[in-house]
User: Fold these one by one.
Assistant:
Number 1:
Amino acid sequence: MKDFEILSHVDHTLLKAVASREEIFSLCDEAIKYKTASVCIPPSYVGIVRDKYGAALNICTVIGFPLGYSVTEAKLCEIDAGLRAGANEFDMVVNLGDVKNRLYEKIIHEISALKKAVGNNILKVIIETCYLTAEEKISLCQAVTQSKADYIKTSTGFGSQGAVMEDIRLFKEHIGPDVKIKAAGGIRTRRDMEDFILAGCDRLAGDIRLIRKAIEARKRSYSPYSGFKVGAALLASGGKVFTGCNIENAAFSPTVCAERTAFFKAVSEGEYDFEAIAVVGWPDGDNEDEPDKHGFAYPCGVCRQVMMEFCHPKSFRVIVAASEDDYTVHTLEEILPHGFGPGDLKQ
Ligand SMILES: [Zn+2]
């Protein structure tokens, strides 16, 4: 699948609470550059983004996000404000308490009211699969179909887990023919995106920036002694990416790796939660156009230990890449089994 085909399915997303205007604008610039389906941004930014970019952008925003338990009237007010500010698409979160109480008629009533309010604009219904049983997911497939919403969406990205393929298959079986699927949460590589699209997802929340940014960062490597240039791109949980390169020193021991440069930049900016890191590395002078000749540069032991300090061993993913198409993905636990972390000092 070609890049542009993948990107045309992507809602380029930044929904973290502390996203700055500059970060939102840089997301929008990327969305235009890469021709993504839309940008998905917090409601309070819709107006200024519409003012700045005009009709060039398809703007998606969120309703009752991320917990879903605001009352229907409040969700309707958010839709109204979003429409007036210039949003084209709305990703609402269902009331998960209603799901647990099996109040499906109430849920259908709410989604129908919101669909009516958005009119010809798109309404996606986030059901937050990580908190649901298979039976609840099936009931919600039926509720979304009955309420005539445009999409069913797996996750907010703020729950305990993002999209999994098994749920996409379950959705496919139980939604009506007019309902499309959006997968969200934790989709960070090209291969993941391709897999979800091939499985039948029409939209994705995610990005393929990580490896690309690591390759960019590698170019800034200061490595006059080894000539081995490494770049890293670290994704913080809120969506911000911190890059790093290896920085060598004539005295050798002060040399620092690309991964730690990225981590220390992020931590010094107040970020402590991370989702994934992409790492690329090959000798200076290697033909950039022949990525199949590049090997994988795995993080050294010291960098793995730094990851252990800040990242969850089972969920943090280490993407080691030779190019945007050639990479391998591991959890931190896989590359640092039985790691010693902050929790161990408390025993
Ligand atoms: Zn290292």
Number 2:
Amino acid sequence: MNKTCKQCKETKSIFMFARTTDSYGKIKYLTLCKACKSLAARNRRKADKIIKVVLNPDPLEQAPDAFKDDPRAEKEHDYGKVVRVPTYFPKGGLND
Ligand SMILES: [Zn+2]
């Protein structure tokens, strides 16, 4: 018995698919083959690692004087004209 994997679209033997039992005790096979399933798990683990790195606190940023202005900036005066320009989104979305 063969089954087509939903991700790699390859028709493989049913033994290449993980088997589960539904609430009625009927044997069911997952739509992803074992190779695609392990690949997805690996990608998920990799994504988790990236999130962990981002969540790691930066000691420089966590310092109490991290967002203090430069002392020289206190004497500075900014006389500027504020121009409000609406955000422009190109047609067809942001991905190109
Ligand atoms: Zn597959």
